[in-house]
Amino acid sequence: MRGVIQGRWRHEARIRGFTLIEIMIVVAVIGILAAIALPSYQDYTVRSKASEGLGFASAAKVAVVSAYSSGGLPANNAAAGLSEAGDVQSQYVDSIQIEGGNIRVTFNDTIPQLYGRSVMLAAKDRGGAIDWCCYSPDIEGRYMPATCRDDARCAETRPAICTGMRCRCTDGWILDGKNCKKP
Fold this sequence. Notes:
The chain is an alpha+beta fold and 183 residues long.
């Protein structure tokens, strides 16, 4: 009887671990999941910071609407009663500039994917009310908040991207002074 118990104990003591192939399969599955999830997460974080910049521009929207109710869309920050463009900054926003009633939110170097690029909030007069349209002349769509990905909602013109005395348009739009027109 003693040998049977010892034999059974020996049998129970032979607990086997995972084989090398099982561990390799688990590591491969985790690697595939990480390869898919990491880029999506990085895009999400950039998109959330772009959204934060749009939220920061809400004060400028109020200023544009206030100036509009007093006689028309403001031409610049001073006409809207705001500080100069470079004085309005946040953690991710380098400047907020009003250009003919439209608000340009330019991002700083905190986020490399958005550095020096901008989002436009276009103000359109709709018979006594202002309709806001959001787009970007130079930020990839995957980094834009969902509400800013539809250029088709925007008007037939948008402000050109001007550096000094030189202006340009993106997405095949045609330069017309300091504005871009749909082709």
